[in-house]
User: Fold these one by one.
Assistant:
Number 1:
Amino acid sequence: MLAELLDARERETGLHSKRVACHTLVLARHFSRDLAVLRQIHFGALLHDIGKIAIPDAILLKPGPLTPEEWAVMRTHPETGYRVVSEIPEMGAAAEIILSHQERHDGTGYPHGLAGGAIPLGARLFAIIDTLDAMTSDRPYRKARGYDAAKAEILRLSGTQFDPHAVEAFLAEETTLRQMVDLKCHETSL
Ligand SMILES: [Fe+2]
């Protein structure tokens, strides 16, 4: 319900959160078959941007580029989301993924500038899927690009923005992910 509320506010169409949660699980299966681990990764991906509920409309929905002051406000969303979700019993690992979902492999992300293995696995996997979903979805200011364009971008950013091991999992699961992206699938049944 929380994820759908956020999608309804921020996105033209819903289902972004469900899609990225489902597609992140495709990568996560590569690293773990532990259902408790997978469940936390699913919830972390599903609720990654939930802290944006606290961002004012004038910033969240601004059509043009943000000012440095507005960016500073926008960059509070991982910590806000962490605070909310870490209050829920047994959601600690999901909350850590939410806190770290804007981090980058090379340490240039936020809020803490974590690098490499210091970033929770779920957040490293999610980062690839979020880029895939963003590039293959229509936005008000541009049309969706195809799967191959998104793949090229992910490969280009392997080792800087993205964990190379996570990119390897992405390549290994490519057939499934391509089908899911083409179908705009948000079910976990594939
Ligand atoms: Fe975010």
Note: The domain at 2-183 is CATH 1.10.3210.10 (Hypothetical protein af1432).
Number 2:
Amino acid sequence: MDILQVKDLKVDFNVPDGIVRAVDGVSFDIERGKVFGIVGESGSGKTLTALSILRLISPPGNIAGGSVIFNGLDMLRLDEKDLRGIRGSKISIVFQEPASSFNPVFTVGEQIVETIISHQGVDGDKAKALTLEYLDRVHIYEAKRIFYDYPHQLSGGTKQRAMIAMALVNSPELVILDEPTTALDVTIQAQVLDLLKEIIERDKLSVLFISHDFGIISRMCDRVAVMRKGIIVETGATKQVLGDPRNEYTVSLLESVKALSS
Ligand SMILES: Nc1ncnc2c1ncn2[C@@H]1O[C@H](COP(=O)(O)OP(=O)(O)OP(=O)(O)O)[C@@H](O)[C@H]1O
Ligand SMILES: [Mg+2]
């Protein structure tokens, strides 16, 4: 049973010279409890595809067509109120740059508590306990101190762990991870990937995992779509796509990775 079905999604940008179609008829399904990857070079439309799922595209961009069916509901046709009920609770998203996800003027704890209260309607004490539990779950060892820190006081790795805690704290049905470790140092990146893998497997999460890195895709994803210039050129089981690619562009991307690492 698919938790998400994206069909013929199109995203346009109104630029001074006219209209640019940045996502041009993208279709894919995510099976419940599986990790679906999107891989592709910079500018191929990965982030726009992710943002479209939550209808977070803002002008001059707009969703020009298609459907995004989440649990049988078309996200592109829901009213704002129903949409707000889904954002951050049933579907959550972690971006590449944790600095842009936390508000600098509130402590990390306040922000996680706030998202719990607004979506779960529990009292402050309960929300705080749950926040500390989740900070602990993402292996932040000084959760009680970090709770009172402002985002800028955390290291990049800790901030991204806190971001992941915030994305998981309302037990979402779908988690979107858009290059969740790209901004981190290589060793920290490996630790955060290990953590994500552990949580995804334990909680059997349904995930959309975006990366430009085939190594990470191969480690994290059951299936993968390869994107180029707003189009999915190939979709399949990760092993098949990486081991026996059918599309010329996938072949050339994989060869360029091999050339770099040899
Ligand atoms: N604000 C904007 N104005 C005009 N065009 C835009 C804007 N934002 C995105 N685009 C267009 O959409 C394309 C896809 O952008 P998107 O952010 O989805 O790429 P991406 O695959 O996530 O890249 P990256 O790997 O660098 O994150 C861009 O190449 C650009 O042509
Ligand atoms: Mg992106």
Note: Residues 97-171 form one domain.
